[in-house]
Amino acid sequence: MRGGAAAGRFRLGGKASLPRGGGRGCANRSELISLVLIIPNKMKIPSLLLRFPHCYFSRRTYFVNCHFTSRADLLCIESLGPVHHCPTKWIRSWICSSSGLRRELCQQVAPDQQIEGLPDREQRLVDRLYNGLIRGHRACLAEAITLVESTQSRKKKVAQVLLQKVLSYHREQEKLNQGKPLAFRVGLSGPPGAGKSTFIECFGKMLTERKYKVSVLAVDPSSSTSGGSLLGDKTRMTELSRDMNAYIRPSPTRGTLGGVTRTTNEAILLCEGGGYNVVLVETVGVGQSEFAVADMVDMFILLLPPAGGDELQGIKRGIIEMADLVAINKADGDLVVPARRIQAEYVSALKLLRRRSKVWRPKVMRISAKTGEGISDMWDKMTEFHDLMLTSGELIAKRRRQQKVWMWNLIQENMLEHFRSHLAVKDKIPLLEEKVLSGVLSPGLAADLLLKAFKDGL
After folding, report:
1. Which residues share a beta bridge with 184?
2. CA angle, corner 208, sides to 175 and 145, nearest 5?
3. Residue 225 burial by CB count (10 A; 0-12/13-18/19+): exposed, middle or buried?
4. Cα dist. 212→56, 204, 275 in Å?
5. In the chain, fewer beta carbons within 10 Å around the N or the C end?
6. Helix, strand, coil: what percent of the chain each, to 5?
């Protein structure tokens, strides 16, 4: 509180009272600053006005929904006439404990102003990265993605502040764009050796020649033994990596399943904030059930080699039914005939799968990233998909569902980390692991014991 308005006072069973300066004692009623009224339960608004007939309630008086845990069961008036809400913060609650009344002041900071709670050094870092990012500086974009990918707790907090600022800027730009998405998010997946990196090199150069800004998020698998990653996808894109209208970012999976990284969704947001209107996400070489990228892009493209199996592979549920477009790559030279055969088999297989969209039926195309054949036609099909989904409203609804899915994915991942580091189970994990290894306990029983200890320790 500022000025002469102190915090409100009250008694457990008694009458509500106003803070000093909250009534006629104010020197200037027009300058009456925010105050919170706490009243006993079941007291009606007319009773409050009768009890304080000379009090002045201005449009700047804040009535906040507060919660109490003591037997006094106090409530706060939620509204009384015109209410003017504070744009940046509000007093949330007064908490009563068994030992007496204890005041707890909680501030909720607006997303675009969370930076105020950071130290000066981190605040300058966020400002520098944000200003450079929205100006299109690739170095700031690279540093921002590195910050988001960090696993250090302090850097993760700074990264969330930066993401909130970029998200606010992103919303403002979408409003200026009549609510339409700023970028076309495309996920590209397929088995190892399908030619994903070669395709992106050819496809990205075509887009930059058409004045598009292309961002490529290439995901490389991490070693299960050493934990390292080669990050070699960029070496296959020599021409595209030198293009000033393109940005290529290789990232390791770090053990994350589904063919993407833990922070791919955040990296997509940063790329869009940097002005890139086509974002390509290249996954690792995946199998039938690894399609996590489909939950973070607008269009999911499955790239297959000519020898991609028979019609039965297309009927199998999994990554095939998630694809919006199936592209048979390497359809050149001696592989033209096998490519035509596999195209016909997948066309018939997709007819048996349930449609996920009311306005789009998945297509199967033949392309050659080596010769460039079919690349332009493929882009035409992609823009047709984007326009149809945007016009029907399915694209906006799909993006909203994706945010919810990714929120729960992050919760699941962070809960596992929290479980391993919890004091109630941290010391018991090695002991129970040893008993499981020696055969004394079954894995299921050991898991139940750890979960019970975790639950009891909450």
Report:
1. 278
2. 60
3. exposed
4. 59, 9, 10
5. C
6. 45, 10, 45
* Rounded distance between C-alpha atoms, residue 456 and residue 458, angstroms: 6
How many CA atoms, within 13 angstroms, populate the side-chain half-sphere of residue 121?
A: 2
Phi, psi of 262 (to 5 degrees): -65, -25
The pLDDT tens digits for 29-81 are: 333 333 344 444 444 444 443 444 444 333 333 333 434 333 333 333 333 33
Least confident of 95-99, 312-316, 339-343, 379-383: 95-99
- 217 in Cβ contact with 281 (< 8 Å): yes
Give the burial string for 40-58 (b: 16+ CB within 10 Å, else e): beeeeeeebeeebeeeebb
Question: What is the enclosing helix (H) or strand (E) of 160?
Answer: helix 153-176
CA-to-CA distance for 454 and 458, rounded, in angstroms? 7
Give the predicted TM-score (pTM) of the model. Answer: 0.69
Q: Which of 13-17, 225-229, 388-392 has the lowest mean pLDDT?
A: 13-17
